Structure formats: structure tokens, C-alpha cells
Amino acid sequence: MTWSYYIYYRVEASQAAACGEAVRKLLDDLRQRTGIRGRVLKKRNEPLLWMEIYEHVADEAKFEWELAEAVAAAQIQPLLQSGSSRHVECFAE
Fold it and tell me: Which helix (H) or strand (E) element contains residue 87?
């Protein structure tokens, strides 16, 4: 069984460019750590609502550990809207 991760959050408007760079760093770091190529989407008519998608994850424990490490290294939390956080949803394939 493999898993797909959908992670959504709201970006602070004044930090959107910095967050874009941080997320690119996160995606590159995570791909190097796990081989999983993620992507990021922005919601139509709500461009500050972003979603990262990671698909075909076979080892969810390793992936979640590496994801947490990569998120911390990219320092994304300070770039999110005040009171906001990253929300993770995981679905089986």
C-alpha cells in the first residue's frame, strides 16, 4: 500500500515570495532525502492558501520523519499567517 499526503496552509501575504523560496527548498530537500517528488498548488481565487502534494509514499514513518526535518530546515512556520499551521491529510492508494 502507498500513501498520498496533502498538506495545506495559509501564507502571510507579505511573506509569499519568501515562502515560495522556502517551499522550493523543502521540495528539493525532501526529494533528495526520500526520492519523493512533491509539488505545490495555490487555490483558485485564494492565492495565499497553498497545498503541498506528495504521492506514492511507501514508508510513511520514514517519510513523515524526513518531512518534519525538511520543514524545520526550510523554516516555513514563521512565513505562515498568524495563528495558522500546516494541516496534514494522508490517504491510501
Answer: strand 87-92
Q: What percent of the chain has pLDDT over 90?
A: 99
| pLDDT band (50, 70, 90) for residue 13 | very high
**Which residues does 56 contact at the CB level (< 8 Å), separation at least 6?**
2, 4, 36, 93
Q: Return the domain boundaries, the chain.
A: 3-92
Whole-prediction pTM: 0.94
Euclidean distance between CA atoms 72 and 46, whole angstroms: 25
Q: How many Cβ atoms are within 10 Å of 44's Cβ, its own excluded?
A: 7
Exposed e or buried b per residue across 59-89, where buried means at least 16 C-beta atoms within 10 angstroms of its C-beta: eeeebeebbeebbeebebeebbeeebeeeee
- Please state which CATH number belongs to domain 3-92: 3.30.70.100
